[in-house]
């Protein structure tokens, strides 16, 4: 199915980005200090997708998966996905599980068991889901996924990947987030003071949420525009490449078309 989207560019609204309603940073050096606190005023800018998405966990090698078949204990089993991405279930050939969502594995096993059982009821349980991550991408020293316990702010995340490259355009850094309403939003900052140090100070106060993507573009604005295109306008390619192998995005409209006849639970 060909997916087309439009980009809705909005300035900051309280209803859509409360976390950045007013961003100010006070550097307090102590009661005896002769210096006054420094405030950095920021005006967040938001680019929002018009279509809505959901984020699905993607199975990978090493995941422990319980496949439960209702009223058929002989067909049920808890297995670990092998390094080659396959798992083995009773009476079935090896199944390629890595890269699938739990729901996709559920449907695959259900279809395979339908040859032997009448209307099998299958449930898939993922028992060791990866810890919450944030993803740093673009002009940084080592683009990678970082456990959020080590990167609670944008500044901490950049430090974890070794900082930015010389050609990076920190003033166009964007935090890309899937909100509860299903819309993707890329958040950038407009500061009254355009010095690079002001942006780094502002980053100290930008709190991250699990599965946030931080994108640092090159100095050329064309790369920033391409990134917004990839991450917001066509996220099924751009965002999914960054989140792989942990998650993938799917259009909510696609999910509405799926006939879900089995239960999938992620513990």
TrEMBL record:
<keyword id="KW-0813">Transport</keyword>
<dbReference type="InterPro" id="IPR049712">
    <property type="entry name" value="Poly_export"/>
</dbReference>
<keyword id="KW-0625">Polysaccharide transport</keyword>
<dbReference type="Pfam" id="PF02563">
    <property type="entry name" value="Poly_export"/>
</dbReference>
<keyword id="KW-0812">Transmembrane</keyword>
<comment type="similarity">
    <text>Belongs to the BexD/CtrA/VexA family.</text>
</comment>
<dbReference type="GO" id="GO:0009279">
    <property type="term" value="C:cell outer membrane"/>
</dbReference>
<keyword id="KW-0564">Palmitate</keyword>
<dbReference type="GO" id="GO:0006811">
    <property type="term" value="P:monoatomic ion transport"/>
</dbReference>
<dbReference type="GO" id="GO:0015159">
    <property type="term" value="F:polysaccharide transmembrane transporter activity"/>
</dbReference>
<keyword id="KW-0732">Signal</keyword>
<dbReference type="InterPro" id="IPR003715">
    <property type="entry name" value="Poly_export_N"/>
</dbReference>
<keyword id="KW-0762">Sugar transport</keyword>
<keyword id="KW-0406">Ion transport</keyword>
<keyword id="KW-0998">Cell outer membrane</keyword>
<dbReference type="GO" id="GO:0015288">
    <property type="term" value="F:porin activity"/>
</dbReference>
<feature type="domain" description="SLBB">
    <location>
        <begin position="134"/>
        <end position="216"/>
    </location>
</feature>
<feature type="domain" description="Polysaccharide export protein N-terminal">
    <location>
        <begin position="54"/>
        <end position="126"/>
    </location>
</feature>
<keyword id="KW-0449">Lipoprotein</keyword>
<protein>
    <submittedName>
        <fullName>Polysaccharide export outer membrane protein</fullName>
    </submittedName>
</protein>
<keyword id="KW-1134">Transmembrane beta strand</keyword>
<keyword id="KW-0472">Membrane</keyword>
<dbReference type="InterPro" id="IPR054765">
    <property type="entry name" value="SLBB_dom"/>
</dbReference>
<dbReference type="Pfam" id="PF22461">
    <property type="entry name" value="SLBB_2"/>
</dbReference>
<dbReference type="GO" id="GO:0046930">
    <property type="term" value="C:pore complex"/>
</dbReference>
<keyword id="KW-0626">Porin</keyword>
């Amino acid at each position: 199915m060909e997916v087309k989207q439009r980009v809705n560019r909005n300035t900051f609204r309280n209803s859509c980005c409360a976390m950045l309603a007013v961003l100010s940073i006070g550097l307090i050096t102590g009661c005896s200090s002769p210096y006054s606190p420094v405030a950095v005023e920021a005006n967040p800018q938001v680019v929002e997708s018009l279509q809505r998405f959901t984020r699905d966990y993607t199975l990978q090698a090493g995941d422990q998966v319980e496949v439960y078949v209702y009223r058929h204990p002989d067909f049920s089993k808890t297995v670990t996905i092998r390094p080659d991405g396959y798992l083995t279930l009773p009476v079935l050939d090896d199944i390629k599980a890595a890269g699938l969502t739990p729901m996709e594995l559920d449907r695959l096993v259900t279809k395979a068991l339908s040859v032997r059982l009448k209307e099998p009821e299958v449930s898939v349980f993922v028992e060791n889901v990866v810890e919450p991550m944030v993803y740093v991408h673009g002009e940084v020293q080592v683009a990678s996924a970082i456990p959020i316990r080590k990167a609670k702010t944008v500044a901490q995340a950049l430090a974890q990947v070794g900082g930015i490259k010389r050609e990076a355009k920190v003033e166009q850094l964007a935090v890309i987030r899937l909100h509860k309403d299903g819309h993707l939003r890329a958040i950038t900052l407009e500061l009254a003071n355009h010095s690079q140090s002001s942006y780094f100070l502002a980053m100290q106060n930008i709190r991250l949420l699990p599965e946030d993507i931080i994108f640092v573009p090159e100095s050329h604005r064309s790369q920033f525009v391409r990134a917004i295109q990839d991450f917001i306008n066509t996220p099924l390619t751009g965002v999914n490449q960054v989140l792989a192998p942990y998650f993938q995005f799917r259009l909510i409209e696609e999910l509405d078309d799926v006939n879900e006849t089995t239960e999938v639970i992620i513990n």
